[in-house]
Amino acid sequence: MSQRTLTTQQALEMMADAFNEPIENLSPETARESIPGWDSMGALMLIAELDERLGLELKAEVSREMKLVQHVLDFLASHGALAP
Asked: If residue 65 lies in a helix (H) or strand (E), which one and from where to where?
């Protein structure tokens, strides 16, 4: 699969879909604990989305360490998948 990049807005939209959360409730500063859908099932949805859309493997143990939306954005950036 060829790797793509996402804008921050597209990444937020992807997270909103994965967590079944309105996009207006998400920003880089949003904490995981304030997103009801960012539970174990939401984390699996995010892992699947990253694999399907970008060909990125987010390991479950790394996912569990993510406490802010910004941490997901940082993961994308560190893999060259977040447009500058």
From this structure: helix 60-65
3-state secondary structure at position 82: strand
Report if pTM > 0.90: yes
Report residue 35: phi and psi, to 5°. Answer: -115, 100
pLDDT tens readout for residues 37-63? 999 999 999 999 999 999 999 999 999
Tell which residue, 14, 2, 24, has the closest CA to residue 75.
Answer: 14
- Residue 37 corresponds to which amino acid? G
Q: Which amino acid is at 9?
A: Q
* Domains of the chain, earliest start first: 8-78 (1.10.1200.10)
